[in-house]
Amino acid sequence: MIPVIVTPQTAALGIALGLLFSLICYLTTNLSPGGMITPGWLALTLVTDVVRAAMMIGVTALTLAATKLLQRHVILYGKRLFAAVVLSAVLLQTTVMLALQHEFPLLYTAQTLGFIVPGLIAYQLVRQPLAATVVSTTAVTLSTYVVLVAGLLLGALPVG
Asked: For residue 56, what is the DSSP state?
């Protein structure tokens, strides 16, 4: 699969669509789909590079495992929990980036938000039931992805 390069306008629309679908999901089910910006970002990542999306899911799983391990030894709740989860995700994503940057130098260009998204998903996985979070995140991400791909295929959205 050849990665697609989306324009900043298409990226902003993807995030906005993800926010809209996330809000609808939250208001109808009272479940957060991995954070409000996460589905839009994941959908954009799926459009541009499936490998990067798979790596993000892997880092999310590692972050969840690290958080569960950390919770056995440290009292984490509220803002401390959020900070610990996001910091763990950033450290794990940075480790993966440093390990792979020589093999795949273009894999991590302009991916600042991609370092935070695994932490946002893992935070919701800690706070909500695991299956409900996975289902809601997947459904909202796929909804956003379908709308983005349809717009790209129909030529309604610009491609770089």
From this structure: H
Q: What are phi and psi of 105, to 5 degrees?
A: -65, -25
Tell me which residue of 8, 125, 152, 17 sits closest to 63, measured CA to CA: 125
Give the length of the chain: 160
The one-letter amino acid code at 62 reads: L
What is the C-alpha to C-alpha distance for residues 72 and 76, in angstroms, rounded to an integer?
9
Nearest to 71, CA basis, from 152, 17, 3, 125: 125
Domain boundaries, the chain: 8-153
Q: How far apart are CA 85 and CA 89, in angstroms?
A: 6
| Composition of the chain by helix, strand, coil, percent to 5 | 70, 0, 25
- Tens-place pLDDT, residues 109-137: 556 667 899 999 999 999 999 999 999 99
Q: Per the confidence metrics, is the pTM higher than 0.85?
A: yes
Q: How far apart are CA 24 and CA 1, in angstroms?
A: 31
